[in-house]
Amino acid sequence: MCDMFGEDEKLNADTEKNFEKDCHMCDAIGHEIKAVNHLMHRKMLESAAKNGVDKVTIMHGWIIAYLYNNQDNDIFQKNLESEFSISRSSVTNILQLMEKKGYIKRESVENDARLKKIVLTEKGMSIKSSIDKAIISNEQEFDSIFTCLLYTSDATDEYRGVDLGGVRIPT
Fold first, then answer.
1. What pTM, to 2 d.p., does this model score?
2. Which of 97, 119, 128, 171 could form a disulfide with 161 if both were Cys (CB 3.0 to 4.6 A apart)?
3. Backbone dihedral region for residue 19 (phi beyond 0: left; psi -120 to 50: alpha; all else: beta)
């Protein structure tokens, strides 16, 4: 049985039997979320390519936008780890690739040579507007789809397998 109830909660036999029968929902929701995430990811890549930023990964785009919007602050690797909830090793790999592609550079800080602030290069700044167009386009489309799904009765049945604005809801 799904472990949704605390040990103190008592279910009568009929409720428990019905819950066991419908418990597949506990397992299926993770699959559905993963499928929607995959579709959104693919749509974001398509949108990025249409806006001329197909050489930038989605995370690179988010980091470029974050750095651009925080130009007045010193941004360090730890800030990116916190902001995007990703591990130190992941951020290290991402930043190395971004540096190699010429989107960012690392600069020493006056009072501590060990610290390196992360700064956008001209190349990184030049693709910012294209990234913004892709993000805005995707956000509007996803907002429309999720609003439709949220406020439509029996939305999961009615829209399952339907193509909504280029994003197909999983069957």
1. 0.60
2. 171
3. alpha
